[in-house]
Write a structure and sequence with these properties.
Number of strands: 14
Strand content: 15-25%
Largest sheet: 6 strands, antiparallel
Number of domains: 2
CATH topology of the largest domain: TIM Barrel
CATH superfamily of the largest domain: Aldolase class I
Number of helices: 12
CATH architecture of the largest domain: Alpha-Beta Barrel
Length: 365
């Protein structure tokens, strides 16, 4: 656990305005709720000199993400942003329910219309970072730190990839599926072969793997072995042919299928759900590889994994080396709220809300 936290904090760096590609229509209020735009017009007409403090919080134990993006947004689109006083926690900070993570002090009409956009940025980024963090923690529940690959490219609109990839990075994922997911810190995506490659070789896994090796000789050779729904037999076939060059196999069996291994060994059935990537299949795969001396071949699993399923695997000691995860990490389950809590330095907030100063906040220059 401490190792994860140290790694998490050690890799974080502040992003700048140049990192982000904002839509210029933000300035026109195109993405702001209309009532914020109307409020700006009214304040401009009647209350131009009022100075407010807006604070932001959420209601969970979480890993904060999105603060750099929010600060860049404010610096880009607020009127006279240098006149604003901003205090913020950092991306990667652990936060608690109702803890203030950001305050902005200045004339409402210069930045208030950005409130909803700020909430949205913090909500999505923090949700993804926290989801990933919890999965990384679960994947290391057995005491051995295991790799988590962020594979969220097919589970949401492609325009979210850069920010989601950064949030996954903050959460502790060490590999991401696309270049866009790595864009904000200048790295590249990683991946080996999809089912489509094997299909294009008419289901010939050996031919597809050989073509991959010859085309990308510098890559670690990790083969996808569930195409024929016979993961153990195909893994052994590849290991016998490629030997030490085969670094790993990935099992991605559909939850609707039962691997051929169990159909050949029906006496094993009856005590567990044999569909998809299950613990018994992975135990059998590890044993089969080890029995033939292929201890070096690592096992990657993917397909429907989430925090609870990974915990089940880890608590049972299932010999997985890497988890590939997508859709469960993209659920937005943390919502932020922005409130005006001070007017001209005096307490003023709606019932049930109050100014919550936080000594952990740092002034943003």
């Amino acid at each position: 656990m401490k190792e994860i936290e140290l790694k998490l904090k050690g890799e974080i760096k502040r992003l700048t305005n140049h990192t982000f590609k904002f839509d210029e229509r933000v300035k026109d209020g195109w993405f702001s709720a209309v009532y914020f735009l109307k409020t700006r017009d009214i304040v401009n007409k009647y209350l131009q000199d009022n100075v407010v403090t807006m604070q932001f919080f959420q209601r969970s134990n979480a890993v904060l993400c999105g603060t750099d993006e929010v600060i860049a947004l404010i610096k880009t689109f607020a009127d006279n942003p240098d006149e604003l006083e901003i205090y913020s926690l950092k991306d990667g900070d652990k936060i608690t329910p109702f803890e203030t993570v950001l305050t902005i002090t200045g004339k409402y009409q210069t930045f208030g219309y950005l409130e909803g956009i700020i909430d949205g940025i913090l909500s999505r980024r923090t949700s993804v970072a926290t989801n990933v963090y919890n999965v990384v923690k679960a994947a290391s529940a057995s005491g051995k730190q295991k790799q988590v690959i962020f594979m969220g490219d097919r589970d949401d609109h492609f325009t979210t990839q850069a920010g989601d990839g950064y949030a996954a990075h903050i959460g502790g994922a060490t590999a991401k599926a696309t270049h866009a997911m790595n864009e904000w810190w200048g790295k590249q995506g990683m991946g080996t072969m999809p089912h489509a490659l094997i299909q294009l070789f008419n289901g010939d896994l050996v031919a597809a793997t050989k073509a991959y090796q010859e085309t990308f000789p510098e890559d670690e050779l990790i083969a996808l072995v569930d195409y024929n729904n016979d993961a153990i037999a195909d893994s052994l076939k590849l290991a016998r042919i490629f030997g030490d060059d085969l670094k790993g196999v990935r099992v991605d069996t559909s939850r609707t299928l039962i691997d051929q291994y169990f159909l050949r060994n029906q006496h094993l059935l009856g005590t567990f759900d044999p569909r998809g990537v299950n613990a018994e299949l992975i135990f059998a795969l590890r044993k089969a590889l080890d029995d033939e001396g292929f201890n070096h071949v690592k096992i990657v699993v993917s397909g429907g994994f989430n925090e609870s399923r990974i915990l089940e695997f880890e608590e049972a000691g299932v010999p997985v080396d890497t988890y590939g995860i997508g859709s469960s990490l993209l659920k937005v389950n943390i919502g932020f709220t922005g409130d005006n809590v001070l007017i001209n330095g005096e307490h003023a907030a709606k019932a049930g809300r109050r100014y919550r100063p936080n000594p952990r906040l740092e002034k943003v220059e």
